Amino acid sequence: MNWTIAGGCALIILARIGDVSLGTMRTVAVVGGHRTLAWLFGFFEVAIWVFVVSAVVTQISATPVYGLAYAFGAATGSYVGVTLQRWLPFGSQVIRVFTRRGPELCEELRDSGFGVTAFEGEGRAGPVSMLFVRVRRTLSPQVVKLARTIDPKCFYTVDDIRLASSADSLARPVLRAP
Predict the structure, then answer these.
(1) pLDDT value of position 172
(2) Among 43, 66, 42, 68, which Cα is nearest to 54's?
(3) Of 61, 52, 71, which is closest to residue 8 (Cα–Cα)?
(4) Rounded mean pLDDT of the chain?
(5) Of 1, 84, 171, 178, which one's alpha carbon is 20 to 30 angstroms from that of 18?
(6) Longest dimension (CA), the chain
């Protein structure tokens, strides 16, 4: 393999990592309702894809290794895209914490500035508190760390919030001109 082919393979791999990663972020933006970001990600994703696929298709019979580079870049792009998605700063999450130290953890979370809704429940081994905390995505690790500090045996789940409403938003309808 000469340097020209190796350079072509590297370029194909990098371009595919880029376009597949953008595709993953576009999907996240669509699901989260971020139309402008979804448009931007989609535009650049498809622009890169068109040029890369046309280069590979025109050269595949002369340089079959370009097909392998294309596949390798696509697979790696999926991995990179999912990794990047974890770091995206937009969106909210709800953290549900199941703990036997509910009042103490609830107070600590509130003292740290987090809103907490607490419920009492019954688990297999007795009473538990269920704490629901809604936060910006970037603050989720801080809530989990605090929960684990107070109760190392707590169980928690973290879910993305696509749509949320409060009683205040229901009480004040948005009026629009006809």
Answers:
(1) 41
(2) 66
(3) 52
(4) 88
(5) 1
(6) 69
Number of H helices, E strands in the chain: 6, 4
Burial pattern 54-84, b for ≥16 Cβ within 10 A else e, equals: ebbeebeeebeebeebbeebbebbbebbeee
Q: How far apart are CA 15 and CA 54, in angstroms?
A: 12
How many residues are present in the chain? 178
Distance CA 84, CA 109 (A): 28
Answer with the residue of higher pLDDT: 1 or 11.
11
Angle at 84 between CA 33 and CA 153, to 5 degrees: 95
Q: Could you report the per-residue pLDDT of 133-169, keeping only the tens digit for each?
A: 999 888 999 999 999 999 999 999 999 877 777 655 4
Specify whether the CB–CB gap between 72 and 13 falls below 8 A: yes
Residue in this structure with the two tokens 């709800």, named with its chain if needed? 94
Residue with tokens 């130290």: 101
Span 81-120, pLDDT tens digits: 988 887 777 778 899 999 999 999 999 999 999 999 999 9
Listed in sequence order, the residues at least 6 apart from 114 whose beta carbon sits closer than 8 Å to its beta carbon are: 133, 135, 139, 143
What's the CA gap between 124 and 111, in Å, rounded? 30
Q: What is the pLDDT of residue 170?
A: 41
